[in-house]
Design goal:
- The chain is an alpha/beta fold and 745 residues long.
- Helices cover 21% and strands 28% of the residues.
- The strands form nine sheets. Strands 17, 18, 20, 21, 22, 24, 25 and 26 form an eight-stranded mixed beta sheet that branches.
- Helix 2 packs across helix 3, helix 7 runs parallel beside helix 8 and helix 13 crosses helix 14.
- The radius of gyration is 27 Å and the shape is globular.
- It starts with 6 loop residues before the first helix and ends in a 16-residue tail after the last strand.
- The relative contact order is 0.11.
Length: 745
């Protein structure tokens, strides 16, 4: 191309070069091709197929082979490759291709909790007895620290015969009869100390110990939460799939891990990450992978996300995933903040410094501006890194107007920081140095004290443990529904402890996640919060149910956990209710004997796609509501100004007493009229299935955040509860998923 002379054509030339550069820029894409071609997987033939497809957009077979990153074929068909936007578009038009999407990253959603859920007895004393050593949990996270006492294999025999995985032993990683497998995946050349399944971040070790850690007496974090740490399934086996590096998890790696885990023989997959909020099913790698998992009898349990408290930010929304929100337990950690005038404030932070409870001089960030670095008081009041005058800040506690101001104070050699809570924050966080997170109202009081005192000082005391009598309630960070992609599927499914939970940690990982600084302390156990902590709690509970009922389907296990969940207090979640906590707070002991279960098959999930609108492979030409998916909750989205009207069909299978009769109890507000037919379900044997029909009606409504109630089937001590949710949407928000049903058969 010859460069033109005139300014106008020079501009056009520059634009064309930029457009050409953008179209030729290569990044990693995921090419999803649906089911694998046959049951006899052959790595060579699968790669050859993918090479031949890549040859269509490359000049040579060598270039095609070089572009291929992963070839998926053990459990489903597809590959990951470095492609330009133009090349990806060409491949997406190939007949055998279902979908093509970029390799985007997901985020990790970061001892008394099992006691709080009623799981207090020794596992061998539970009714029914729980051993769990034949259950294999696939942990998708940052790896694991195998030397942690939480993963010792004392008393465990060899792995179950169904196990077909392997242990990658790089960097002295050793498996045992507890950690029976370990793999790592890295599609990007990230700088990590260990290119192995060994955990550098701590997050993966924490999640694994919560789900299936062995009992460890005396576990604590600098003296806090001291006691016996254990997971929900202490005898279950752990298979490690390290897909997250530097707290980021990429689609190509997760897809490869699912491919391996399904073929390796895991029973449950625990995925403590969230992302792809705006992705439809066939462009959502987690949805794709978990669908293939459930097809193979494997339940995927995933985090709802940490985008709360605003509504509609929930991730992991497909109906075959068990989506978990985070809730509190009856223990909480607080930090007393004592001012020089004697005023005491309770801070939402975990402070493991200042053991001797020493007071330090106190200063406003706005009074310690680093003018020589061209900052002004407004910036230093927010304590941005570099904005503070270290000569004024050194050895002092700084009051900041920014919740993330600690990094700037630490950089300026301050002794500690007082900062505002995040919006609606109802949990304590772990910090690098002395920190007191308080409300904006208390921030104003501290500011007034500083301005009115000649020598202001403060004491950020060592943290204390308090009883939280309001627990459980949903954490402010936990992502809320509604399910913006499938209005008729209530999400999250349930909630579990995810606030200030003690768990195993990597000794080389920072115990505090503090932006802009490093924490060089080393700990074996840490206290963290997140839906990535609540997720492994439900994983452990699901392992208990699976061990007790090894032939149950993923849908049956999910149903048992949801219908036996403890109802939450709606008054503490006024505008969210079930959008915050789903069916309620998980109760593992009740889930093993639910009485009735709502079952669903792979064909039911495929039909779910059909009923969202006409497409290839579907007989219907009319867009239908997917209400009839046999889901253990009822969700009805009503367009603004319309009357409430919905009809649901559900089927329950008897897994309790052979001869049993269940009566229905309807608990809904007056605005709803709910009719259930029949009102009695009589069973004569275990495994018998009965249908019931639900009609929900009401007046025209507009701008209603949520109306909720429940239907409960009761027989003696069996209480089978499903929530009913009605809410309004704008007409433009009605969504129809465009997934191609025929590729999911």
């Amino acid at each position: 191309m010859t460069k033109p002379e005139s300014p106008f054509f020079t501009l056009l030339f520059t634009i064309s070069l930029l457009m050409h550069a953008q179209s030729s820029y290569k990044q990693m894409y995921i090419v999803y091709m649906g089911e694998k071609n046959n049951n006899n997987w052959d790595e060579f033939s699968t790669q050859s197929l993918h090479h031949s497809m890549l040859l269509e957009v490359h000049e040579s077979i060598d270039a095609a082979k070089e572009s291929l990153i992963y070839s998926y074929g053990r459990s489903f068909n597809g590959f990951a490759a470095m492609l330009s936007e133009e090349e990806a578009a060409i491949i997406s038009d190939m007949e055998e291709v279902v979908s093509v999407f970029p390799n985007l990253g997901l985020e990790l959603q970061t001892t008394r909790s099992w006691d709080f859920m009623g799981f207090t007895d020794d596992a061998s004393k539970l009714t029914p007895p729980f051993d769990g050593r034949n259950i294999i949990i696939g942990m998708f996270d940052t790896g694991i620290w195998p030397e942690s006492e939480s993963f010792n294999d004392e008393g465990l025999g060899p792995p179950p015969k169904k196990w077909r995985g392997k242990c990658q032993t790089e960097h002295n990683f050793t498996c045992n009869n507890k950690i029976i497998g370990a793999r790592y995946y890295q599609s990007f050349g990230l700088e990590e100390q260990f290119k192995s399944a060994r955990d550098e971040s701590g997050h993966g070790s924490h999640a694994a110990s919560v789900a299936a850690g062995r009992e460890v007496v005396g576990a604590n974090y600098f003296g806090l939460a001291k006691g016996t740490a254990k997971g929900g399934a202490p005898n279950a086996r752990i298979a490690v799939y390290k897909v997250c590096w530097n707290m980021a998890c990429y689609a190509a790696d997760i897809l490869a891990a699912f491919d391996d885990a399904i073929a390796d023989g895991v029973d449950i997959i625990s995925a403590s990450f969230a992302g792809y909020l705006q992705s439809r099913f066939l462009f959502n790698p987690v949805a794709i992978r978990s669908f293939h998992a459930v097809k193979n009898g494997i339940l995927t349990i995933a985090a709802a996300g940490n985008q709360g408290p605003q509504r509609g930010g929930l991730a992991n929304h497909p109906p075959w995933i068990l989506t978990v929100a985070a809730s509190t337990i009856y223990r909480k950690f607080v930090t007393p903040l004592v001012l020089g005038n004697g005023d005491v404030t309770t801070a939402n932070s975990i402070n493991t410094y200042n053991v001797k409870n020493i007071s330090y001089p106190l200063i406003l960030g706005g009074d310690a501006t680093n003018f020589s670095a061209n900052y002004i008081p407004r910036e230093s009041s927010l304590c941005f890194p570099g904005s503070l005058n270290s000569e004024k800040v050194k050895g002092k506690i700084v009051l900041c107007e920014n919740s993330e101001g600690g990094a700037g104070v630490q950089m300026a050699t301050g002794a500690g920081v007082i900062a505002p809570n995040r919006p609606q924050q109802n949990y304590a966080e772990n910090y690098l140095f002395q920190t007191a997170s308080i409300s904006n109202k208390e921030i104003s009081k501290v500011s007034q004290y500083i301005k009115s005192s000649n020598k202001p000082k403060a004491n950020i005391m060592f943290s204390e443990t308090m009883e939280d009598k309001d627990a459980p309630y949903v954490a402010s960070f936990s992502s809320r529904g509604p399910n913006i992609f499938n209005h008729d599927i209530l999400k999250p499914d349930l909630c579990a402890p995810g606030v200030n939970i003690l768990g195993a940690w990597s000794p080389i990982a920072s115990p505090s996640m503090f932006i802009g600084t490093e924490d060089f302390r080393s700990v074996e156990y840490n206290i963290i919060s997140g839906t990535s902590v609540s997720c492994p709690h439900v994983t452990g509970a699901a392992a208990y149910v699976k061990a007790t009922h090894p032939t149950w389907s993923p849908a049956a296990i999910k149903s048992a956990l949801m219908t036996t969940a403890n109802p939450m207090d709606p008054k503490m979640h006024e505008y969210e209710k079930e959008f915050a906590y789903g069916s309620g707070h998980v109760k593992p002991l009740y889930a093993v004997d639910p009485g009735l279960v709502f079952n669903a098959t792979k064909e039911d999930y495929s039909d779910f796609f059909c009923k969202e609108g006409p497409r290839n492979g579907c007989k219907s030409t009319k867009a239908l509501k997917p209400w009839d998916l046999n889901y253990p909750s009822l969700s009805l989205a009503v367009k603004d100004g319309n009357a409430i009207k919905g009809n649901f069909v559900r089927a329950v299978t008897n897994v309790g007493m052979p001869k049993s009769t269940y009566d229905v109890i309807i608990d809904v507000p007056r605005i709803l009229k709910v009719k259930v037919e029949p009102s009695t379900l009589a069973f004569s044997k275990v495994g018998e299935e009965k249908f019931f029909f639900v009609e929900v009606t009401g007046p025209k409504i507009s701008q209603v955040p949520i109306i909720s109630g429940s239907i409960t089937w009761v027989h003696l001590n069996h209480i089978v509860r499903i929530p009913i949710v009605v809410y309004t949407i704008l007409p433009c928000m009605e969504f129809r998923n465009s997934s191609l049903n025929q590729h999911l058969n």
